[in-house]
């Protein structure tokens, strides 16, 4: 069953088109992440769903009810903002119950909902404190709890972890995942952090310029990005791109400088004729070194230019096909700048993108 449905949605600010004829269906109980760089329209789309912005065209349905022009309070949504926006003079309990008290809900029902939210978020010992006495992570839990007490079907998160340090982000990411598994509510989550997107989402909508570039499961987007933008945005460190062309014939290959990568194992989605200018994309983690490289369909000797220790592994930089090229090695494996090593990869795990359109070939 569809929980949130967006049909032909557009939003213009004067002459600037921010969202462009978007269509999106979010299934009941799904965790959907809107992912993209700053200015791509992801928070704007979330604000349209919440009713905080009036759309220029299109319709929004929540639980099969057209809410396009309904007030935010009538849409049956709970929203968590990037800012905690807690009342500093109120205790945690008062912050959690404020909206319910304004709505004149019975006292016993307010107490039940606050107690349930506090238990789920593990903030029961904090109910008597004020926001100034809480850490950043605790404040964000309270902000989530304020949405949770509304007992709604759809939760909207607008970059809720962006103000926290890396360790706390990781901890709260796990808490949000647990929260979704426990509640089984529909959740739409906005972030520019692709690690958050990959770890939290059932599906990811990658956005650019007010358009959804790809909507799919995290692993599908990671393994088969539909264009070069998605390929470069997903993954840390980013995908390597080497510019070249397709050299057709009995044994087609990707040619870039003195590099020829065999393409016999490729199944082209589209195009890919002889002479087509294209980019070969290879993820650093798909590149093997030494003995493991010897077993790969393609291998080559390169010189190491930069070594970046990263704790659990090491990122190594070289030149390949006239471009900067990185690959991962185990932290225990010694590598030195200036050393010659053999690297290899399976062309079947790489991606080819048309140089003019950026689309996957």
From TrEMBL:
**CDD domains attached here?**
ABC_MalK_N
Q: What is its main location?
A: membrane
Q: Which residues form the ABC transporter domain?
A: 4-234
Q: Which GO terms describe its cellular component?
A: ATP-binding cassette (ABC) transporter complex, substrate-binding subunit-containing
GO-annotated molecular function = ABC-type transporter activity; ATP binding; ATP hydrolysis activity
Per the record, the similarity remark reads:
Belongs to the ABC transporter superfamily.
Name of the protein in its database record: ABC transporter ATP-binding protein
Q: Which organism is it from?
A: Nitratireductor mangrovi
List the top taxonomic levels of the source. Bacteria, Pseudomonadati, Pseudomonadota, Alphaproteobacteria, Hyphomicrobiales
